[in-house]
Amino acid sequence: MLELDFSVLxxxxxxxxxxxxxxxxxxxxxxxxxxxxxxxxxxxxTILIVISNIFFLYRxxxxxxxxxxxxxxxxxxxxxxxxKKIMVAVSGTLLxxxxxVVVLVLMAGNLGxxxxxxxxxxxxxxLGTVISKIFGLxxxxxxxxxxSSQQFESGRAYWILFVVLFSGSIVASFCIFRMSY
Length: 181
Fold this sequence. Notes:
This protein is mainly alpha-helical and 181 residues long. The protein is built from 7 helices and 2 strands. The chain has helices at 2-26, 36-56, 60-77, 82-111, 115-120, 122-147, 156-180, and strands spanning 28-29, 78-79. Strands 1-2 form a two-stranded antiparallel ribbon. Helix 1 runs parallel beside helix 6 (122-147).
């Protein structure tokens, strides 16, 4: 049960980071934003995602809640036309959903079990969550680096991202090893 709690927390924090990477790629940060304000934005978006998950219970309406939460936070932290903010919020939601579905299908195909078995088994569910969030972070970071309207700066945030990606890989490897024996 502790694995699932960690998985849910990990998932929501990484989803918020994915959205902020997409915001950085396609929107312009407000001038008054200092370095700690995006961290507050990630915390706020994480809380909104958790509320959406609890309220909509991981159903289709949860995707609307996820996109609306991202739209709300982008309106507070970034400049740009509303249509562009909607596009980024919807694209982020689709990216997160697509990564989860692709990982689910690949796991089902490679492990020779059904998607229902993966969803109902906490070990497989945890592994799928970690792998899908790593893919989401990779894709959003590539988009941010390729499409960013701001100057590329290397700093603490990139080291934190590296640690998250690296630790996610270690956790995924551990889960695969544990499920093998």
